[in-house]
## 1
Amino acid sequence: MSKAGYLPRGDKERVLWLNHFASKFAVHSNTLGLSPADVASVNNDAAMFTYLVTQVEMHTTAKENRVTYKNLIKDGPIGAPGGMLPMPVPAIAAPTVVAPGIFPRLAMLVQRIKSTPTYTEAIGKDLGVISAQQSTDTTDLKPALKLVIKGGQVEVQWVKGKADSIRIEKDSGTGWQFLTVDSIPHYTDKTPITTAATWKYRAMYIISDELVGQWSDVASIGVS
């Protein structure tokens, strides 16, 4: 099975994609229950990536022009017009500095978006986070979880198969909560056990940063 991701490969194409995503994200953020801080983070990431790619292009072109001019002045030919000395690269105001990991951070955000109850395929298409090629053989993918106690902690055992990773959620008595995205089986839940209780777990596979298939059957274990 193969499945194309929604992100383009080239930096120039990613600039276009990310700026489109940022503009649409602001429109859908309220529907998806996301905060103004999320919107600001996406906008800052888009501005910074655009700035950096632009700077690389400008300085690459400037370097090429200077190398050409240097070689002309160095080697001639004699009598050739020298032309004007290459001009300095114009300064561009820098945007807000962001932390490393724009696209890993974005992948986590897309996972959050697709796991919200108000997310729809129409929103996904508008944001540009649905793969150009959708594989049809992921419908029946369903993790099988096994829970064991090891060293006083719960180990969630699962099989990776065709998936890239797995999203695990936990209900320790207060409803389902996001626990982790795990890419290497198995996952150890390091939550301290402070009282006797029944912990429940469920999971769904992830391929190319998208939740696919079905939720696993709920697995339960008594802890004390």
## 2
Amino acid sequence: MYRIIFYIFLFFVFTGCATQSTFTNQNINNNYMQLTSKDFSDHTYLSSEFTCDGENKRPQLAWSQVPTATKSLALAMFDPDAPGDGFLHWLVVNLPPQDLSLASSDNLPSPAMQIKNDAGKFEYFGPCPPQGVHRYQFTLYALDVPSINPTDYQDFCSRLMDI
């Protein structure tokens, strides 16, 4: 039913609110889908404007080489190092596949929608680790369905598992 065509992990590792690293995976067409940002570089500190200590503004993100069969995209930011099962900071579904970037200040393109994060908000919730080093995973999903309407992250994940 809901099937992932391809997904890619982009890892950002923050010290306090800090360092990043990235990698890409190869998709089914032997092309590379990349997720990048103009707001930070690999292995550098993320400006506080993108954290809960600053403006809590989402970073600019861009992606390339979306598989041609993609009907919608989903974007998640997850902290696997948070207590419990991790912490979902941000989830956007139904992003149009022809849109290849998201500015930090833009409204989401129609019909994209934000799903409730673990802070109980329908918006980006910047890094805010209480202590130590946390990794933040930005994951871009290329989906073969035009839209999904999950109620939360667990529902989103379970829909992806309905392959």
## 3
Amino acid sequence: MNLLLDTHVLLWWLDDNPTLSKKAKAAIADGKNLVFVSAAVIWEIRIKQALGKLDIPPDFRQVLNLQPFEKLDITVDHAHVVGDLPAYHRDPFDRMLVAQAKIEGMTLVSRDVHLKKYKVPLIKA
């Protein structure tokens, strides 16, 4: 299974936060699953950091590179699909993750209940 992590899931994983569900934690840790981090997630984290809404370690890039995660770039096709999505969710980062999950055939890992409306596979974080 190919997993796509929502922003809060990545942060909880890196922090070993007990808020992350056992099911999500097991799926991420399962070496049979490919785990992806979208450029949209890194973009959101860096924006929140720049606005003073999120503290991340100075070596965040290195911390992330030490994880066994694949990187997922944002493509023109992803951007077009965002425009075709129903307006169930207004957050542009989450809408991008939904578009990427749809195009790439991935399972989203998220606690965001609004994402269920998009009919993409979802593991509740």
## 4
Amino acid sequence: MGAPAVVVGRRATDRNRNFWVVTVSAGGRPHALPVWGVWDDDDGRFAFSCAPRARKARNLAANPRTVIMVDDTVECLSVEGRVAPVHGDERRALWIERYLAKYQPISPGISADFLRQHLMVEFQPERAFAIIEREEEFSTRATRWVFGT
């Protein structure tokens, strides 16, 4: 996948616990809330879950365009793309396994049963923007990557 996968890949996403997800309703109203999520280097995709009736789920059903950002204001990363619900028991089980591997050590009460009750979506990145805000490494402009579609 080249440079975009390196910037967005597992290394970048594993060190972040929370990710901001920005969705837009059918009427154009923006909505931003943090989620937990996992990246898969082989698929080049990110997955997160939410309650099936949450505003986020309704927005995603109406408009799959989404922005995901790491919860870091020093090494900023913003990724634009589209989401789609995860279908198929095998595919859901794979994402749940990845999710539990990352989050069970810090939240032992989370379970596969809990995750199966929620909407699981895959995020397909289209472009990423990054900037470092540390004084000694400060960038004068953002770096942009475009993913192959």
